[in-house]
Amino acid sequence: IAAHVVRAGGAYVLQHPREKFQIDLFWSLTSRHIARPISYDDLAPSSVDTHASAAGNELAAEILLVSLCVHGVKHLWARHAWTADVAALLARYPNLDWGLTIATARRWGVVRMLALGLAWTSRFTEFPLPPPADALVQAEPAVNPWCGQLARQFTIDPAWQPRDDLFRLRMQLAACEGIRGRWRYLTWRLLAPSPNDWREMPLPDACFPLYYLIRPLRLMHRALRTAAAPQ
């Protein structure tokens, strides 16, 4: 199953057996169903800042900003700390190369997600966006309705957490760019097996292809069960 987990997404979650500690091992900066998978090997040398005093390298601020926005949009900014991370990065690097930032988002196919992340951060933290970022946000018509719907959820319940339901589906679908992006999202979302599938119904490795049939049925059953539940 572990090999299929690697192919299914860009992370492997390790959970402490007794404590609530959890570590996500990432080998892609984007999730396959959200955007084209971007591995660390895909990055140009200029995308990585090298610190002689550190044990390793870290992503350039421009690349990190795009990654943070994609991650936040993917999870509908469920943790306010993710929003604070974007605001802190913008405050720490007032002279970001916005040309590189936007070019990276365009190459990854996530310009809309970058705009949504910047708009949500500015709205939630009241952090003033620099002119290039503000221009990007103003040029994206999906920003206001998307952020407005998400803000209503947190207004109704400040501790709101996204569920695997139609609202999340609509929000993530709206964050995808173009017909190709939405088609990729729906295909992977509805057909590609996920860890939840084999966690709920463990099968021998030889039977793994059956998950491609089981997943749509499982999603349909859950949708019907949710619709029939009393409000």
Can you describe this structure?
It is a single chain. This protein has 231 residues and is mainly alpha-helical. The chain is 56% helix and 7% strand. It is built from 11 helices and 4 strands; from the N terminus they run H-E-E-E-E-H-H-H-H-H-H-H-H-H-H. The protein has helices at 2-8, 61-74, 80-92, 98-108, 111-125, 131-138, 143-156, 166-175, 178-191, 195-200, 211-228; strands at residues 11-15, 22-26, 48-50, 57-59. Strands 1-2 form a two-stranded antiparallel sheet. It is globular, with a radius of gyration of 19 Å. The mean pLDDT is 81.
Overall body shape: globular
Task: Figure out the total of helices.
Answer: 11
Would you list the SSEs in sequence order as H and E?
A: HEEEEHHHHHHHHHH
Can you tell me the residue ranges where pLDDT is under 50 for at least 5 consecutive residues?
Answer: none
Report the radius of gyration as a whole number of Å.
19 Å
Largest sheet: 2 strands, antiparallel
Q: Report the sheet-strand fraction.
A: 5-15%
N-to-C span: 37 Å
Overall number of strands = 4
**Global mean pLDDT:** 81
Class of secondary structure makeup = mainly alpha
List the strand order in the largest sheet: 1-2
Helicity range of the residues?
Answer: 55-70%
What kind of oligomer do you see?
A: single chain
